[in-house]
C-alpha cells in the first residue's frame, strides 16, 4: 500500500523518561530544601513528574506531561531540534527508510471504503490482478468499510509481516459478485525520486522529493537511465525538497564533483571540524548540471546546491532556498520515542553558513516565507537582503553569500498563475484528486487505449470537465468558485492528476513541467551557445 505523507532531535529528555521508571523509589518525605539542594536540574524535573504521578488530586496521563515537557525544552533550543512521539516513530522511520511492508496500492478512503487509485507497478497487488477503481471490502474476514474506520485503522489491517499473505474480497464495477484475491505482502518503496525523463534530446531531468535511505540508489538508477538515453546535461529538481540524510546528499553531490573536491564541513559546539570530500566514483563530473531550488528547498537540498555552486560546478536556478544549516542526530529516549537534536552546523566549501537567524522564536522563523512574499523577493532578485559581512568568493571569483539560504545564479520569479493560493489549496486538500478519480470511475475504458506518451503529448482536458469540476467544488465548499482568471492552469492540474492516476510515477511531473517557467528557463539556458 502506498500512501502519501509529507515531516522531522535531548539530554534532559532522557532523564524525564527515566524519572517515571524510578519514581516509586523516591522518598516523598524529603523536604524541598533537601530535594533541590542535593539534586541536579534533571532530578528536579524527575521529581516533579513523580509528585504529579503519585500525589496530584486528579488522575493525569504523565506520558502526555513528559511529551509537553520535552517539547517545551526543545522549543528553547532551535527550530529544528524536534521530539518524535512513539505513536509517530513508525511512519517517520518508514518515510526516511524509503519503504514499508504492504500490499502495494495507492488508495482513497472513498465513500467509506478503500478504493484503489492505482496498483503500484510490479507490486504484489498488481501481480495479483487488482486494478484502479477496485474497492477492497474485506481483508482476512475483517470488514474494511464504514464511517467508523479511519485511514490508520485501515492501513493496519492491510499491513503485516513480510511475505505474509492476506485474503482480500474486492468489489469491481461491472462484476456480478465480489472477487477474491490472495496477496503476499512485500517491501513497498516510498519513492523519493518523482520523475526521470528527457526534457530535450540532450537534457535529462531528475526530480528528488527528499533525501531518504533509498534516495541515492533511486537517483543513481535514474542518472544511469538518462545517460543511456544520451543525456549530456542534467537538470536536478530540488524544489520543495525539505532535506533528509546529510550522507545521502553527499553521495549525490559526489556524482558531479571531481575527486578531492570539498563537499561541505561541519562544526560542533567544541569546535571540532569534519570535512567531507568527493571521491573518484562520480559518473557525471564533466557535463552541465542545473540545480532547481525554491524557498522550500531546505537542508540536504541546500547542501547539494551549495557544494556545486561553491565549486563553480553547474548553475543554480530558481529562488533563494529555505536557509537551514543545522545538522540533527536522532537519539532514542528509551520508550519508543526519540528526539532529533541539533549537534552541529554545516558550512559550504567556501566556508559560509546558510542557516538563517532564529533568535526571534519559532513563529517568526517559520513565518519568514510571508516576509519574503511581502518584500517582493519572490518576484524580484534585487529585493533579496544580503550582508557584505557574509560575502564569500568561489575559486573562479564568483561572489556568494551566507546568512540565509542559497541565492541562485539565475533567478526565476514565482509563477503566480500556477502557484496561486486557490489552486494550491484545492490540490493539498485533495479536491482535485477526488474529482479526477470520480471522472475516471464514470468510464475508465475510454482511456484504456491511450499510451502514456500519447496522453502526455496530445490529450486535452475538455471545457465540460472544467465546468464539472467547478460544479463539484461548489457543492463541497462554501465559496462559489469560478476559474475565469486561471482557466488554463486548472486544465493543467486536471490533466497532470489524470496522468498520475492513470500512469503512475513521473506522469504528473511530465505533464505539469510542460508549462513550468523554471523548466522553460533551464531549457533556454541549455540551448544557449557558449
What does this molecule look like?
The protein is globular. It is α+β, with helices and mostly antiparallel strands and 530 residues long. Strands 3, 4, 5, 6, 7 and 8 form a six-stranded antiparallel sheet that branches. A six-stranded mixed sheet has the order 10-11-12-15-16-21, with helices on both faces. Strands 1, 13, 14, 17 and 18 form a five-stranded antiparallel sheet that branches. The protein starts with 10 loop residues before the first helix and ends with a helix. Helix content is 37%, strand content 20%. A hairpin with a 2-residue loop joins strand 5 (135-139) and strand 6 (142-143). The protein has four domains: 11-76, no CATH class; 99-189, PDZ domain (Pdz3 Domain, Roll), CATH 2.30.42.10; 193-411, Alpha-Beta Complex (2-enoyl-CoA Hydratase, Chain A, domain 1), CATH 3.90.226.10; 421-522, no CATH class. It has 19 helices and 21 strands. Residues 89-144 form the PDZ domain. Pfam families: PDZ_2, Peptidase_S41. It comes from Mariniflexile aquimaris.
Q: What is the CA-based Rg, rounded?
A: 26 Å
Through-space gap between termini: 48 Å
Q: Please report the total strand number as a whole number.
A: 21
**CATH arch. level architecture of the largest domain:** Alpha-Beta Complex
Domain PDZ: 89-144
Transmembrane segments: 7-28
Keywords: Hydrolase, Membrane, Protease, Serine protease, Transmembrane, Transmembrane helix
Protein name: S41 family peptidase
Task: Give structural attributes.
serine protease, about 525 residues, six-stranded antiparallel beta sheet, 2-enoyl-CoA Hydratase, Chain A, domain 1, globular, alpha+beta, ClpP/crotonase-like_dom_sf, single chain, 21 strands, Pdz3 Domain, 4 domains, transmembrane
Amino acid at each position: 500500500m502506498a500512501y502519501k505523507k509529507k515531516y522531522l532531535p535531548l539530554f534532559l529528555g532522557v532523564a524525564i523518561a527515566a524519572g517515571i521508571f524510578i519514581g516509586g523509589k523516591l522518598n516523598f518525605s524529603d523536604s524541598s530544601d533537601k530535594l533541590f539542594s542535593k539534586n541536579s536540574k534533571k532530578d528536579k524535573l524527575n521529581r516533579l513528574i513523580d509528585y504529579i504521578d503519585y500525589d496530584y488530586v486528579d488522575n493525569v496521563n504523565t506520558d502526555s506531561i513528559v511529551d509537553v515537557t520535552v517539547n517545551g525544552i526543545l522549543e528553547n533550543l532551535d527550530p529544528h531540534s524536534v521530539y518524535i512521539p512513539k505513536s509517530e516513530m513508525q511512519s517517520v522511520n518508514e518515510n526516511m527508510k524509503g519503504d514499508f511492508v504492504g500490499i502495494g496500492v495507492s488508495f482513497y478512503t472513498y465513500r467509506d471504503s478503500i478504493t484503489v487509485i492505482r496498483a503500484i507497478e510490479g507490486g504484489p497487488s498488481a501481480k495479483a490482478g487488482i486494478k484502479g477503481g477496485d474497492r477492497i471490502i474485506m481483508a482476512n474476514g475483517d470488514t474494511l468499510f464504514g464511517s467508523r474506520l479511519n485511514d490508520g485503522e485501515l492501513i493496519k489491517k492491510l499491513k503485516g509481516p513480510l511475505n505474509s499473505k492476506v485474503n482480500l474480497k474486492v468489489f469491481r464495477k461491472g462484476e456480478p459478485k465480489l472477487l477474491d484475491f490472495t496477496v503476499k505482502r512485500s517491501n513497498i518503496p516510498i519513492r523519493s525520486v518523482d520523475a526521470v525523463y528527457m526534457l530535450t534530446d540532450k537534457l535529462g531531468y531528475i526530480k528528488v522529493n527528499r533525501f531518504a535511505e533509498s534516495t541515492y540508489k533511486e537517483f543513481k538508477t535514474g542518472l544511469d537511465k538518462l545517460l543511456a538515453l544520451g543525456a549530456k546535461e542534467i537538470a536536478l529538481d530540488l524544489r520543495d525538497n525539505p532535506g533528509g540524510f546529510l550522507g545521502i546528499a553527499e553521495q549525490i553531490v559526489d556524482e558531479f564533483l571531481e575527486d578531492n573536491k570539498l563537499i561541505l564541513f561541519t562544526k560542533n559546539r567544541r569546535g571540532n571540524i569534519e570535512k567531507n570530500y568527493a571521491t573518484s566514483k562520480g559518473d557525471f563530473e564533466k557535463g552541465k548540471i542545473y540545480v532547481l531550488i525554491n524557498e522550500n528547498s531546505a537542508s540536504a537540498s541546500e547542501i547539494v546546491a551549495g557544494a556545486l555552486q561553491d565549486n563553480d560546478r553547474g548553475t543554480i536556478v530558481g529562488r533563494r532556498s529555505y536557509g537551514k544549516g543545522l545538522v540533527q542526530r536522532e537519539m532514542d529516549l528509551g520508550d519508543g520515542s526519540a528526539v532529533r537534536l541539533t549537534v552541529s552546523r554545516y558550512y559550504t566549501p567556501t566556508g559560509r553558513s546558510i542557516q538563517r537567524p532564529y533568535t526571534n522564536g519559532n513563529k517568526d522563523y517559520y513565518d519568514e516565507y510571508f516576509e519574503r512574499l511581502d518584500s517582493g523577493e519572490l518576484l524580484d532578485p534585487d529585493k533579496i537582503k544580503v550582508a557584505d559581512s557574509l560575502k564569500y568568493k568561489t575559486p573562479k571569483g564568483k561572489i556568494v553569500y551566507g546568512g540565509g539560504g542559497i541565492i541562485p545564479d539565475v533567478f526565476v520569479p514565482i509563477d503566480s498563475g500556477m502557484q496561486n493560493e486557490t489552486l494550491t489549496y484545492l490540490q493539498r486538500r485533495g479536491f482535485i484528486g477526488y474529482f479526477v478519480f470520480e471522472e475516471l470511475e464514470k468510464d475508465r475504458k475510454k482511456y484504456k487505449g491511450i499510451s502514456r506518451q500519447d496522453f502526455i503529448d496530445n490529450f486535452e482536458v475538455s471545457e465540460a470537465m472544467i465546468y464539472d469540476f467547478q460544479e463539484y467544488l461548489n457543492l463541497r465548499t462554501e465559496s462559489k468558485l469560478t476559474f475565469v482568471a486561471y482557466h488554463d492552469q486548472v486544465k493543467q492540474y486536471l490533466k497532470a492528476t489524470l496522468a498520475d492516476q492513470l500512469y503512475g510515477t513521473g506522469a504528473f511531473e511530465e505533464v505539469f513541467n510542460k508549462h513550468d517557467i523554471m523548466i522553460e528557463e533551464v531549457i533556454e539556458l541549455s540551448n544557449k551557445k557558449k
